[in-house]
Design goal:
The complex is a heterodimer of chains A (794) and B (384).
Chain A lengths: L2 H12 L1 H38 L5 E8 L1 H8 L4 E15 L5 E8 L11 E5 L6 E5 L11 E6 L4 E11 L15 E5 L1 H6 L6 E8 L5 H17 L4 E6 L8 H35 L2 H9 L4 H42 L10 H12 L1 H15 L2 H5 L13 H8 L5 H10 L3 H36 L6 E10 H9 L4 E15 L5 E10 L10 E4 L9 E5 H6 L8 E6 L2 E11 L8 E5 H8 L4 E9 L1 H5 L3 H14 L4 E6 H8 L1 H35 L1 H9 L4 H43 L9 H28 L2 H5 L3
Helix pairs in contact in A: 2-6, 2-8, 2-9, 2-21, 6-10, 6-14, 6-21, 6-23, 8-9, 8-10, 13-23, 14-21, 14-23, 14-24, 21-23, 21-24, 23-24
Chain B lengths: L21 E12 L2 E13 L4 E5 L6 H9 L6 E6 L2 E2 L5 H11 E4 L11 H12 L4 H14 L15 H12 L6 E5 L7 H16 L3 E5 L11 E6 L2 E2 L2 H6 L5 H10 L1 E6 L3 E2 L8 E7 L2 E7 L2 E8 L4 E3 L5 E2 L3 E7 L3 E8 H8 L4 H14 L15
Parallel strand pairs in B: 3-8, 3-9, 6-7, 7-8
Antiparallel strand pairs in B: 1-2, 1-4, 4-5, 9-10, 11-19, 12-18, 13-16, 13-19, 14-15, 14-18, 17-18
Helix pairs in contact in B: 2-3, 3-4, 3-5, 4-5, 8-9
Classes of the chains: A alpha+beta (794), B alpha+beta (384).
Chain lengths: 794, 384
């Protein structure tokens, strides 16, 4: 091996700690980019491909009972790829903790599942009197245990749990994924033993691939016609040209944030690499001088150091690529398990690898070329002379002059403060890295605050303490009397509910709308109005629509009339306002309850009751216990209770998806903070290396180990605190951007933007802690240096 | 080897009186690296006394800095102990040692080593902050006083980069005095300064010695030697015997170092005679202290009488020994004489093939014995 290459190896080996520090800095930068890019692509692919693999239905309709003959008839319709009958049985189940919860039992088709397929994760397919459970809700039950259920008839049964499945279609129809009840899967045989009739009630249809929207509508119409011709009536129908996973909004939010962070992380990594390389090369100037003195030409030196940098990049790359792929897979799993799709295997995503290679091999070379050229221009004399302590840049700029004016601090503190500004370029890059990390961290809390404000909004519609859902409407007076007889109940208010269809001008169904009937003067709802007004006493067919209508039907204005199909009857409603709810594609409307009951024919009846607890129950946080008591009480008296839930529980379920995003965001901000703190460690390490002589001098004049460590740590903390200031400023636009991405993806609109001091306060603690941790290693190194080494007398 | 302390401030190879302020006991330092072992200091016994201005002299790699580092605690000996004012320097933990150093030793470096981000004043305040010897309220005044003493009061608020090298070194001296240490250790403090500036630095050191401080200075500068109260010559990690170095300054230092190993010594009382014809016939005798009277006899006639004092040497080698024809006698004429002697065969063994050095010694010896080559000393010198 030629001596010059041996020198490179010796340089790497001779300063192994520095070599590890720089390599890790580079690797962390590449890791962040690789993980984020890999996570972005695998998350999208896993959800998309995984969802297509379940063969989701393009058309879903519910109608009165039908059998396999009708399914077969539909399969023959031109354009239909396949069809499958389905039936849902509503029941209650006892959880592992002994509480009663809603359960939907889906009856598996007689033949193999072909549409909306579920994936068996554990155990086996069920036989008679057996059940599989969906993993989307952890009810504390395992394979091999018994599931106690109570049918709507009040009959209790016991089914053996044979398996756990992932059903990616939960949330497509009915309630959203995060509030969807537990779901079980039973066979046709079990269904009959549950005394249910054997008919299907809903039909799932997949169409030929690539079908246009217009053609899909034609096919749906034809199917509708066939069913109606068979004497059945269609309760609801939805079509989806390209079915997307019900939680795709959350995934879009996550990947949108990943894209933003990925963009930031490329810069962060670039800065980190630049900082590390320039500091490393600064150490080599003396050797460059020596080599020039013995005849090395400038080009040879440049070539040597480019190879030197290449080696660093390559080693860091070898660390970063597999670790990033692993982390991307873990990130994917995190999202997949929480957003109900199947995680993929660890994979090397080409784009992520290419980005990492680019950062490993191009960024260091680009960033290294400046210091290399500078170093290679250094005169032999300048390079080899030993001049004692280098002054760095200190003393030349405006900031230095201002710092010189500060006299009131102790000298050690002054040293830390002024040292901070010795290498301004390095400081700037470190600040950018750490500030961006901090900004993302703070933004996470602001975004969370913005989500919390959303949750508060949702809470405004559920001001009651307990919500009771019955399987069928009950007389209002009767239920009010029963409930008022229970201890702890202060007030009862009925609420109507109907699933109606929005019709277009041609009288065709275009959307299913959940219509809630409320008392116009109810004080249990405090709506957030976007336009117009809420329902008021005296209103008849007034209707207030949620923001989904604004997004999907912007042509509908306050004062317009819309038509809803109520039990095959077209009923006109006057739009009096729009309210803010949970956005997305969930169509919701409030109407006066009395009018709703009138048009649905449920006079003086309601399926839902809102209960306000007495003050003592509220004060003792006893709402959940009250809900449980009411549930037991009503069941004992033979009422078909579907659920009795405290508002807290409802809000908790509604915000589970948002919690997932918040945790995800925290992980991301943790990574950016990590990149920032490693950058700081690198900077502090390089600063210490550069200042070994100074440290030696300080110890020679009486500084103890502890005093030297404190000097270094205080400098790190000062950098951390400055970065906090910049981070707080940067947090505003980044919070706004992140909130925009998240709200748009999840709720389909930008949403309200909120700030909270929490993020700013926590970050100042975290950044101080990170600064101290990042400085401890360099500080210990500084304290360990023997004065003899650093003063190098001979 | 000279042992025991004699009262004679005018003999440059003699230690001052009293207990040593700094005491190095059997100090060895060995560095181990890939190339093997390197002995930087080899079994050194050395004392420094209060108020001394000692120059540590030696060529590059001779162990000067290592020796000084042993005193400051900057480096640890492989063997041996260092006591400064009775404190075992290397028995202290490093942090305690740092504070001790800050209070007891002022270090002045060749390249000044002022911290560039602090003004000259702040640099002087820094050791006070580290060691807390002076109350905070008094530090500023003391720092200003020190800067005034070195003539820098007007530049107190300038950064080191804004003043000259000489001024930086003056500030460094002020910094070294910050905690009023009794000892100043200076590592080639003028190595980076011009002659005039160097001179002013030496003046400052001289006045510090006058104040009673002990200064140990590594130096290459021959100009300073006359200002020193004592020199410690180092060669290959060993201290050259100061009497040898004084008596044979023309001998190469490696030779002096080897001869140091061969030295023997003895003390003789007044009235006794040295037997040049037998016991000392093969030795070179160096007078460490006291007086010896050499007489030349021809038959019964005494035709030459020389009195030799400290720093002179004589020998019985090649002298006529027939008491009937001619012979030399050596009598102790002071209360006592301390002699250091070297066997000639040891000198020949050390000098090897190179006879020039022995010839030179013999030549000077013969001149002394005819009364022409005696060394003048602080005592009475030559009496004919």
């Amino acid at each position: 091996m030629r001596p010059r290459w041996r020198k490179i190896i010796a340089d790497l080996w001779g300063h192994i700690a520095r070599f590890i520090l720089v390599t890790l800095s580079l690797a962390v930068g590449m890791f962040a980019v690789g993980m984020i890019a890999g996570g972005y692509i695998t998350t999208l692919e896993n959800m998309e491909e995984g969802y297509q693999a379940v063969n989701p239905a393009n058309i879903r309709l519910t109608t009165s009972g039908f059998d396999e003959n009708l399914v077969e008839r539909i399969r023959r319709v031109d354009g239909v790829a396949n069809a499958q009958g389905e039936k849902l049985i509503f029941a209650q189940m006892r959880t592992g903790e002994g509480e009663w919860r809603n359960l939907i039992l889906q009856v598996l088709p007689e033949n193999d599942q072909i549409i909306d397929k579920i994936t068996l994760l554990e155990g086996r397919w069920p036989g008679e009197e057996e059940v599989m459970l969906s993993v989307h809700r952890d009810e504390g039950l395992n394979v091999g245990e018994d599931l106690n259920i109570q049918l709507m008839t009040g009959e209790a049964r016991e089914l053996s749990i044979t398996g756990m499945v992932r059903d990616q279609t939960i949330g497509v129809a009915g309630t959203s994924y995060f509030v969807a009840p537990a779901q079980g899967y039973v066979t046709f045989e079990t269904q009959s033993s549950l005394h249910e009739n054997l008919d299907y009630e809903s039909l799932l249809i997949s169409v030929e691939p690539g079908m246009s929207s217009a053609r899909l509508d034609e096919v749906a119409e034809e199917i509708q016609g066939i069913i109606e011709q068979s004497g059945r009536e269609i309760d609801s129908i939805t079509t989806q040209e390209n079915p997307v996973h019900p939680n795709s909004g959350y995934v879009s939010a996550a990947v949108g944030l990943l894209a933003l962070l990925g963009f930031l992380s490329v810069f962060l990594s670039g800065f980190l690499v630049f900082n590390s390389m320039s500091a490393l090369l600064a150490q080599q100037i003396r050797y460059i001088g020596i080599m020039k003195a013995i005849g090395a030409r400038r080009n040879a030196i440049i070539r040597m150091y480019m190879v030197f940098i290449f080696v660093f990049g390559l080693i860091a790359l070898l660390i970063a690529i597999p670790s990033a792929a692993w982390a991307a897979a873990e990130l994917g799993s995190f999202l997949a398990l929480r957003l109900n799709y199947l995680p993929g295997e660890m994979t090397y995503v080409p784009l992520a690898v290419i980005l990492q290679i680019a950062i490993a091999l191009i960024v260091p070379q680009i960033t290294g070329i400046v210091p290399i050229l500078k170093a290679s221009r250094v005169s032999v004399h300048d390079a080899v002379r030993t001049t004692g302590i280098e002054s760095g840049d200190f003393g030349k700029g405006w900031i230095d002059r201002q710092l010189e004016k500060i006299k009131s601090l102790t000298r050690p503190l002054l040293i830390s403060l002024r040292n901070t500004f010795r290498r301004k370029g390095r400081l700037l890059l470190t600040l950018i890295t750490l500030s961006l990390g901090g900004a993302v961290f703070i933004a996470t809390f602001n975004v969370r605050a913005s989500l919390d404000s959303y949750i508060e909004q949702v809470a405004e519609y559920i001001l009651a303490d307990v919500t009771i859902d019955f399987a069928r409407p009950y007389r209002i007076n009767e239920i009010e009397d029963v409930l008022n007889s229970v201890d702890g109940v202060a007030e009862v208010e009925p609420r109507g509910s109907a699933s109606l269809q929005l019709l277009n001008d041609a009288g065709e169904t275009v959307e299913n709308v959940e219509v809630l009937g409320a008392l116009p003067d109810s004080d249990l709802i405090q709506p957030i109005l976007l336009e117009g007004r809420w329902i008021v006493p005296g209103d008849d067919n007034a209707i207030v629509l949620n923001e989904a209508f604004i997004t999907h039907y912007p042509e509908i204005d306050v004062g317009d009339r819309i038509t809803l199909d109520v039990n095959r009857r077209e009923v006109d409603w006057e739009v009096v306002g729009f309210f803010q709810f949970i956005g997305s594609d969930y169509f919701l409307a409030y109407v006066p309850m009395e009018y709703l009951n009138q048009v649905t024919g449920n006079l003086n009846e309601a399926p839902n009751f809102q209960v306000v607890a007495t003050q003592d129950i509220r004060a003792a946080d006893g709402e959940s216990a009250l809900a449980q008591r009411l549930d037991d009480f009503l069941r004992e008296r033979g009422y078909a209770v579907r659920s009795a839930s405290s508002s807290e529980e409802i809000r908790g379920n509604a915000t589970k998806g948002l919690d997932t995003l918040t945790i995800f965001l925290l992980i991301m901000s943790g990574i950016t903070a990590l990149v920032g703190s490693i950058s700081l460690t690198g900077t502090m390490g390089m600063n210490v290396i550069e200042r070994t002589r100074e440290i030696g001098v300080m110890r020679a004049i009486g500084a103890t180990d502890r005093q030297v460590k404190i000097l270094v740590i205080v400098e790190g903390v000062i950098i951390g605190l400055i970065s906090w200031i910049f981070g707080t400023l940067l947090a505003f636009p980044i919070s706004a951007l992140m909130s925009y991405i998240l709200n748009t993806a999840v709720f389909g609109m930008p949403g309200e933007f909120a700030f909270t001091a929490t993020g700013f306060i926590i970050w100042i603690g975290v950044v101080i802690l990170l600064s101290v941790i990042a400085s401890i290693l360099p500080a210990n190194n500084a304290a360990r240096l023997t004065i003899r080494e650093v003063l190098a007398y001979e | 080897m000279i042992t025991g302390v004699k009262v004679n401030a005018n003999l440059p190879w003699h230690n001052p009186t009293g207990d040593p302020f700094i005491n190095l006991q059997r100090i060895s330092k060995t560095y181990r690296n890939a190339a093997g072992e390197f002995i930087a200091l080899n079994n050194i016994d050395l004392n420094f006394y209060k108020g001394e201005f000692v120059g540590v002299i030696g060529k590059s790699g001779s162990g000067k800095s290592t020796l000084v580092n042993m005193i400051t605690g900057i480096d640890r000996p492989t063997e041996g102990k260092v006591f400064v004012d009775g404190v075992d320097v290397h028995a202290m933990r490093e942090s305690k040692q740092a504070r001790w150093r800050g209070l007891n030793l002022g270090v002045v470096f060749q390249f000044f080593q002022l911290l560039p981000m602090l003004s000259l004043l702040e640099n002087v305040l820094l050791p006070m902050d580290f060691c807390n010897k002076y109350p905070e309220g008094k530090r500023l005044k003391r720092a200003m006083d020190l800067l005034r003493m070195v003539g820098l009061e007007k530049d107190a608020h300038k950064l080191p980069g804004a003043v000259s090298g000489g001024q930086q070194q003056s500030a460094a001296i002020a910094r070294a005095l910050a905690n009023d240490p009794p000892i100043i250790i200076a590592d080639e403090p003028t190595g980076n300064l011009d002659a005039k500036t160097a001179d002013s630095v030496y003046d400052k050191f001289a006045s510090l010695v006058d104040e009673g401080r002990t200064i140990i200075m590594i130096t290459h500068d021959p100009e300073i030697e006359h200002r020193l109260s004592r020199k410690v010559l180092l060669e290959d990690g060993e201290v050259i015997d100061p009497l040898l170095a004084e008596v044979f300054p023309w001998l190469p230092r490696p030779l002096l170092r080897q001869l140091t190993h061969e030295l023997q010594s003895d003390v003789f009382q007044r009235g006794s005679s040295l037997d040049l014809s037998s016991r000392f016939a093969r030795d070179l005798l160096l007078i460490d202290s006291g007086r010896v009277q050499i007489q030349h006899h021809k038959g019964t006639q005494k035709d030459l009488q020389i009195e030799l004092g400290p720093g002179n040497f004589f020998s019985g080698r090649d002298l006529p020994t027939d008491p009937d024809l001619q012979h030399y006698s050596a009598d102790i004429v002071s209360s006592q004489v301390s002699l250091v002697y070297l066997p000639f065969n040891a000198i020949s063994g050390v000098a090897g093939e190179n006879h020039d050095h022995i010839n030179e010694i013999m030549d000077r010896l013969s001149k002394i014995l005819i009364g022409q080559g005696e060394k003048e000393t602080g005592e009475e010198g030559l009496i004919q």
